[in-house]
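Notes from the pairing session

We agreed to fold both candidates in a single pass and log them together. This is the raw record for the first candidate, unedited. Please don't reformat it; downstream parsing expects exactly this layout.

Candidate A
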Amino acid sequence: MSPEVECVETESNIIPIQDYQPESEPAGSKETLRSMAVEKIAEELKNFYGGQKEKCVSSHVAAQVTHFCEESPEFAEVVYKTKRTLSDCCAEVMKGVGNHISDFDVYRGIVRAYYPNADVRFLMNIEINGAAPSEEEMSKLPEKPAPKAKPAPNPQTKPQVTVVPPKKKEATQPEIIQLSLF
């Protein structure tokens, strides 16, 4: 400060500064919808209901729906605003499935449960690191686990039943039955 200027502090020239509070995001912002969709899926997983097959895939479907929501704000918005639940999504994915389903079909089912007109395309890249396997490695047969030994069955003695063969009938004339119709 320069000596000519005198600074006098009074209550009238003190400006109170409030603690900084970041502004909350608008209700429809993309980040808010993403987090609300993720919370919705987590809650629906806790309250999941469905059959055996649906329960088997529920945690994996929830993880994938969450991942899709984090990747796409549009997908997150639909997941949050739809009345369909994770249980409904799993039921739709597993509808008509026998004893197995491919991962790709599960992904398609998840997307179509929320976006019925959508489809999923897959791109798989194989990264070959290093040299090709040697002739010795390629000709080597895979190791097979040893078959499990079955325990010997407990011998149980069954009562001896003697079977008496039926007596042979003597050759006789066939019986004739006559029916009268009125």
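Candidate B (folded immediately after A)
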Amino acid sequence: EIIGLSSYLLIGFWYCQPGVTSAATRAFLVTRSADLGLYIAVFILIASAGSSDIATTLNTGGNAAIVAGFFLLVAAMGKSAQTPLHDWLQRAMAGPAPVSALLHSATLVAAGAILLIRVAPMLPPEVLLVIGLVGGVTTVVAGLIALGERDLKRLTAASTSSQYGLMLVAVGAGVPLAALLHLIAHATIKSGLFLGAGVFQHSRNSTKLADLQGVGRDRPRVFFGYTLAALALAGIPPTSGFFSKEAIIAASLASPNALLLAPLALAGTLLTGAYMARALRILWHGSRENHKIVGLYWMGAGLAGLVTLAVILGVTFPAIETLLNIRLPENTPTRFPPEIFGLGAAVGGLMLGWFVTARRLLGPLLPWAQQGFTIAGGFDNLMVRPAIAIARGCERLERILYAGVLAVGRLGLDIGRAVRRNDEQGIDGLIFSLVRNTVELGSRARSLQSGLIHREMAITVVGTVFILTALLLALLVY
């Protein structure tokens, strides 16, 4: 969480510039949303293993490991900008070049790959296969995006997604330590590339490749260092990138799913050489515009140190393998060693990128690549649009429920009014009528009683005579 917040602040460093705040917010939201996968996976593992100890949770098996593994993959896809969650990383290039070097080498983007490398022993084969396929698709898709990119920093960002895709291929092949070697090599290489891009940006006040044509002639030493880093990323010996990519390709060839993973890894290596050679060609060919830069030597010193590490770090890989007890695949089911495949793909990609334009290489795919393959994913298609659709559906459901509640309320009011009318006009009317009739009858009966004794006696005599007369008449008749 601290890394995510710090990255948000660093990406939004130039917050006054248009689009910077939006890019920082998008990066923050995508990575935070992906973190939900990590939280859910952790809860599943703890509930299944009964402990939060990593060594204990790594022994979790069965369906819990499968479900948790897929949620961990979602978290890694968001952090490491894997397809279809790769779009935010290119937008994060709104920050300064040193920030990009930091994010892409050792902090935010590396977190997803490190997570999968750490939990790889726990993951069942089904999850590993999906991880390898996601990484393979990403390394190809992001490589095509980088090949058609028109901005140097965005090209380098797409390259980052592609290289982390290769690391996921190694994890999916069952050799996470090969991914660890490439993670170490990539950290120095990509930092050098971003610092070199920052120097070129200061030279022309732009990161557009069209504006950077010929900038390599203005800064030949920086261009030389940038070229070494590009060759290391492509996988040319004896750089560190060659050894780490050789390990990944060997792992993919030795994998039970070699028919799926190895072609994707080789295609990613080919595309890496192609887009780096294209960038070098554009940076070198063009007119010179030698502008003085303040602090060039300090910038060059950082670039020189990183490029030196990128070149010589591969020599130390055998010692690192021994120190970390890393066992890489030694035998592959191919006639030729894996170095031949990797080196051939790298050299072929460099030649294609240098001699063939991106328009001819990509053909009808060029507009799609320049738009970041919107169908392939991105934050909008995977998260924003579904979230908006769900929100609209919830709004419609709420309106229906609200209308139903109002209808029930109106029905209750109508029934209440009818009961009130029936009560007022029916029951109350009947009671009031009985009361009135009783009162009237009582009033009339009371009028017969005047309270005068002689009148009461007279009425009694008259009544008695009337009754006797009636009785006599009745006797005479019958």
